[in-house]
Inverse folding.
């Protein structure tokens, strides 16, 4: 059986190849290691192998791990799962990033609840790009108002967009979705100074996402093994 360090190396080399094939600069795509449901001992192994960015889906589980792993310097925690308003305070107090902001109310609470002792919280707006009822996220039409609102919040830094494109679609549909995301991202990147992140691509669509401008891919089971 492969170790976490070996699987991490494979994921990174897959990202490097896809980046080179897309004629993009080396290291222009980051890897977010999605550690949901996995024990902190697994995260320590990935950290020891050099990984620094970790993604969690569930607030309570994520916060417990963050507290448990406080001894690891320069680790960076991203919330990538749905966030309810009654959980914003503990998120604002512990995470460095929230990629799943999809309502102004959530952004406002995170902004108000970010402790002054911490640097501003990095956020991405989550788009529901395939208009799936089962997924959270804003429609592209709702994006401009949301971006305006967050731009005026002093304790948040608007870093970019996050999306989870539908998995079982035709290559043509997939390409349309990724092109639309890329265009939206580039539109705002030229206007906003810290807007540098397009979080799209998972195990199944890493290459396609990187060919279409992704700057961060989120990979879980290919690094940590299948979840229960
Ligand atoms: C779970 C999850 C991932 C990683 O999925 P894997 O299939 O384990 O690679 C990526 N992004 C989001 C939003 C997730 O919830």
């Amino acid at each position: 059986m492969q170790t976490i360090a070996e699987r991490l190396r494979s994921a990174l080399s897959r990202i490097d190849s896809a980046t080179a094939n897309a004629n993009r600069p080396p290291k222009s795509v980051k890897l977010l290691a999605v550690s949901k449901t996995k024990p902190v001992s697994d995260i320590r192994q990935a950290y020891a192998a050099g990984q620094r960015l970790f993604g969690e889906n569930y607030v309570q589980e994520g916060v417990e791990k963050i507290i448990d792993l406080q001894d690891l310097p320069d680790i960076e925690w991203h919330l990538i799962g749905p966030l309810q308003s009654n959980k914003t305070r503990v998120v604002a107090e512990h995470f460095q990033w929230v990629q799943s902001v999809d309502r102004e109310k959530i952004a406002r609470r995170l902004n108000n609840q970010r402790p002054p002792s911490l640097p501003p919280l990095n956020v991405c707006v989550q788009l529901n790009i395939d208009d799936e009822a089962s997924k959270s996220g804003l429609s592209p039409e709702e994006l401009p108002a949301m971006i305006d609102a967050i731009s005026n919040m002093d304790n948040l830094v608007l870093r970019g967009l996050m999306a989870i494109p539908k998995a079982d679609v035709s290559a043509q549909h997939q390409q349309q979705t990724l092109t639309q995301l890329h265009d939206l991202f580039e539109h705002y990147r030229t206007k906003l100074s810290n807007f540098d992140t397009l979080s799209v691509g998972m195990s199944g669509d890493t290459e396609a996402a990187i060919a279409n401008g992704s700057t961060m891919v989120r990979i879980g089971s290919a690094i940590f093994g299948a979840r229960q």
Notes: The chain is about 40% helix and 20% strand. Residues 24 and 156 are 29 Å apart (CA to CA).
